[in-house]
Amino acid sequence: MTGECLGLRVERSTWNRLEWSQDFSKIATWAASGVVLTPGATQAPDGNMTATKLIEATDTQAAVRKLVATTTAEATKDFPYSFSIFAKANTASVLQLSAVGAFPEPTFVNFDLKNGRLGKTSSGSTKRGLMQATIEPYRNGWYRCSITIMPYSAANPEFTLALTESDTSAGALPSYLPATPKSVFIWGAQAELSDGATSYIPTIGAEVQRGSDICTTPTVASFVSAAAGTVLVSVVHPHSIKALTDKYGALSCAAVIDNSVAGPHVRFAYRNTNVDGDYGAVLGVVPDESGTAQNLEIPSMPPVPDSEQACIFSFDATALTARLFDGYNWYERSLTATPPALNRLTIGRGYLESSNYLKGYIKKIVYWPSALSESAMEEMLSL
């Protein structure tokens, strides 16, 4: 993590389904086996001395070195569930994350905390098993490690942290006897019903809900026009992509020109990556209360981890056209109608439903109350 601002983050409401996200000694959430915990062992990513040392226990027999989480919400079959934790190498350098309870066999990933890489992973698909694994660097040697699973059954996923004797090629939950006990540091665990890891939600004795974010221009602003409009938007996609399925939102809306309530609007949004059908982004114009969109598909703009994508789009109620330029390609379509009234710009979510949030960051957004010419749109995007 460089400390550079990625942009405006507008997130949907979600819960951290762990009652204790930082105190790993609490048996309501955590069950340790073959390991010893030392709280307050080093500085956590938030700057406080609250990180825990996870140490291989001194014993005489081979054993699995693990810390098992109990979530407050069970997995639902075919609905993605994500688990994340901040981890840092100490005398050991590999941490395994697995989901044991929602599958016939453990689904796991080994995280190399020395080199910031993924090691051996279990097999998975878009239907069952492991959907995504990410390791994201933070300051002072910390990484945020995350897995996203597609549960096979409705059960407690039993998200599990395990040590592997620093072996990146270890299988699920390896059993071993360490010659000398080694350790890693851990902090800030999160379990959430999501396609990927969202911003960290601390908990102390109870699950916690993060409220939905809303960012709009004032509805009394007179500069938003239903006659025509142009919007330039730049989006930064996160390390952990949260647009894998349609379970938590059919679209990922970056910019929506609407009329305060669900109904007629113009939207630029990303489609989810593992849903059959159209792929990439879409410029949609919904002219009436039916909710039926006249879509202009943008296949050149799929969500890509750690990428920045910019485009400029316009609509014109007189010419009945919508067009978009992605910096390389022009897309255009004719319209049968446009919204009769528009009064605001909604940033990072749409009012189609409460879950159509942008699963990324808004780096830049510019609005014009007119349909710019193609040459002007190209010039504005190049600045």
Order of helices and strands: EEEEEEEEEEEEEEEEEEEEEEEEEEEH
The profile of the biggest β sheet is:
6 strands, antiparallel
Number of domains: 2
List the total number of helices: 1
Strand order of the largest sheet: 1-27-18-23-24-25
Mean pLDDT: 93
Give the terminus-to-terminus CA distance.
27 Å
Judging from the principal axes of the Cα atoms, what is the shape?
Answer: elongated
Per the CATH scheme, the topology name of the largest domain is Jelly Rolls
Annotation, overall tally of beta strands:
27
Q: What is the C-level CATH assignment of the largest domain?
A: Mainly Beta
Oligomer: single chain
* Share in β-strands: 35-45%
Determine Rg (CA atoms, Å). Answer: 23 Å
Tell me the CATH superfamily of the largest domain.
Answer: Galactose-binding domain-like
Question: If you had to describe this structure to a student in words, what would you say it looks like?
Answer:
The chain is mainly β and 383 residues long. It folds into 2 domains: 13-210, Sandwich (Jelly Rolls), CATH 2.60.120; 228-382, Sandwich (Jelly Rolls). It is 2% helix and 42% strand. It is built from 1 helix and 27 strands. It has a 6-stranded antiparallel sheet, covered by helices on one side. A hairpin with a 6-residue loop joins β19 (251-258) and β20 (265-271). The chain starts with 7 loop residues before the first strand and ends with a helix.
